[in-house]
Amino acid sequence: MTWREYHEFTKHNPSSLRRTLHVLDWANMPDPFRHYDGVPVLDLPADPPVPETPALEVLRGVSGAATAAEGPTFLSQLLFYSAAISASKRVPSTGYRYALRVNPSSGNLHPTEFHFLARGLKDWPDGLYHYRPSAHMAEQRALGNLDMRWTDSSAPVVFLFTTIAWREAWKYRDRAYRYCLHDIGHAWQALALAGRAIGCDSFARGHFPDDEVAQSCRLHEDEWPMLVVELRGPSIPMRASCTAAETVWYGGHANRLSTDDVVYPRIHAIHTATKLGDGCGGISAAGPAAIGSGEIKLPLPASSTRAFGEVARMRRSALDFVGGAQSMSFAQLSAVLAAATALLSADFAASRFIQLYLYVHRVDGLQPGVYRFWQGSAELEQIRSGDQRVQAAGLSLGQDLAGNACASFSMIADIERAVRAHGDRGYRYVHFEAGAIGHRLYLAAEALGLAATGIGAFYDDEVHDYLNLASGQGQVVYHFAIGYPVPDPRLEA
Ligand SMILES: Cc1cc2nc3c(=O)[nH]c(=O)nc-3n(C[C@H](O)[C@H](O)[C@H](O)COP(=O)(O)O)c2cc1C
Prior knowledge:
Blueprint: H1 3-9, H2 14-19, E1 36-37, E2 41-43, H3 55-60, H4 71-80, E3 85-90, E4 97-101, E5 112-118, E6 127-132, E7 137-143, E8 157-163, H5 165-172, H6 176-197, E9 201-205, H7 210-216, E10 224-232, E11 248-249, E12 253-254, H8 265-273, E13 296-297, H9 308-314, H10 330-340, E14 354-360, E15 369-374, E16 379-385, H11 389-395, H12 401-404, E17 407-413, H13 415-422, H14 425-447, E18 451-455, H15 460-466, E19 475-483
Antiparallel strand pairs: 1-12, 2-7, 3-4, 5-6, 5-8, 6-7, 7-11, 8-10, 9-10, 13-16, 14-15, 14-17, 15-16, 17-19, 18-19
Helix pairs in contact: 5-6, 6-14, 10-14, 13-14
C-alpha cells in the first residue's frame, strides 16, 4: 500500500459516512494506560516546581530557567508539564470518571507511549524507562549503559514515542493511523516546549531504522516506534562523573489492553510502507516550500504573561465555542499564528510542509472570509469573502464548534513534496508537523484566554474544492478551531 492509496481510502465523504455501520464495542475498549509489569518502579517527586516563563515566550523560543537540582525533580517536572494527568471528567448520567492529560489525543484514547533513556543524571540511575502517567512514576525496564546506535550518545535524556494503533482504531478504524501520527506531533511539542520552559533544547528525529529501535528497546509488539526526541542543555542536572555500568534488563510484561485486539490490515500496510530499514542512512533535504504574499499584513502579536506551567496544565479542548458577537482581536490572531508556525527543531522540519488556511468568523478588524496564511511574509491573502460559519462547520463533518469559533483552520499539507524527499516516510512527517502546529495553537489560545480544539474529522475532498486547491496542490490533514469555550459540566479539575 502506498501513502496515496491509504490516504484516498481513509477520506471522509458524506456517502461513506452514511454507509458506516461501526458500533463501538465498549466491553473491548483498549486500556488507555500501558504498564510494563514486574519491573522496579521509581517515584517522580510530587508537585515539581512550576515553569514560570510566560507560555507565549516559550512558544517564541525563549528558554526558561532551570529549577531542578537533581534528576528525579527534573524528570518529574518535564513529564508533569508534558504527559501527566491534568484533569478528569465525570459523565453525569453514569458517574463514569476518566482522566485527561497534558497532551491531547483524538477521542482521548491516547495511543502514544513515552519511553526514555537517561544517562548521567544526578541521583537517577542510567537506564531505559517507560513513563506511567496513571501514577506519575517511571518503570525501569533496563539499568546501566545501553548501546542504542540509533541515537546520539551525547544526549543525557532521549525520549522515544511509540504508538499503539489499536487504541485509536477501536474507534476510528482505518483512519486511525492519521490520528496516531497527529498525536505524536502533539506529544513532541508538549515535551519540547516543557523542556524549553525548564531550560533544555530538544531535537526530534523521525528518520531511524524502525525494527532496530523496537528490538533494542524490547517494545511489546503492539507498540511502534515513531519519534525520537533528544534533550540537552546546562539545566539538566548531571552527576560529576559517569561510570560505565553493566546492563541489567528487567523488560517487564506489557499489560493486555483489550480482550480482543482487532487487526486493521490497512493500518499495518501503511505503517509498513512508511518504515525504514537498517541501512536507511541519513535523511535527505526536502525542496523549499512555496513562497507567496497577501494583501493583509499581520499586526504586532498580542502578549500574555501566563506562566507556561499553568497554561500547559490548564489547556483543554473546548466542547464547543460560544457563538454570538464576542470576537477575538487581530493582535491575538497574530500571536496565535506566530506561535503556531515558529521554528520546529527536527531532522524533517528544515523545510515545512503545512500551510494554514483560515475561516475567519469574528476577528476584530478582519472581514469574515477565507484566508491563506503566508508564513514567510506574515501576510494573509483573502481567497473568499463573506460569512463562513456554516461552511466551516459543514466541512468539519457538521461539527458546530468549527462555526461557533472565532476562527477555524484547515492545515493543507504538501504531501507530494514530502514524499519526493523522504519516500512514504514523508507521510508521517507531514502529520507530525500538523500535530505540532496544533499543539502550539492549543497553548497559544490558552495563554491568550481563549481555547482551541483539534478536529481530525473533515470531508477531505470537499475541503479541497472549497479552497480551490488544484489536484496535487495539497491535501487537508487537520482542522482546528479557536474561540471562547462553552463551560463543560463534566470537567472536575
Ligand atoms: C488529532 C486530534 C483530533 C481530534 N479531533 C476532534 C474532533 O474531530 N472533534 C472534537 O470535538 N474533538 C477532537 N479532538 C479533541 C479530543 O477529543 C480531545 O483532545 C480529547 O478528548 C482530550 O481532551 P483534552 O484535549 O481536553 O485533553 C481531537 C484531538 C486530536 C489531538
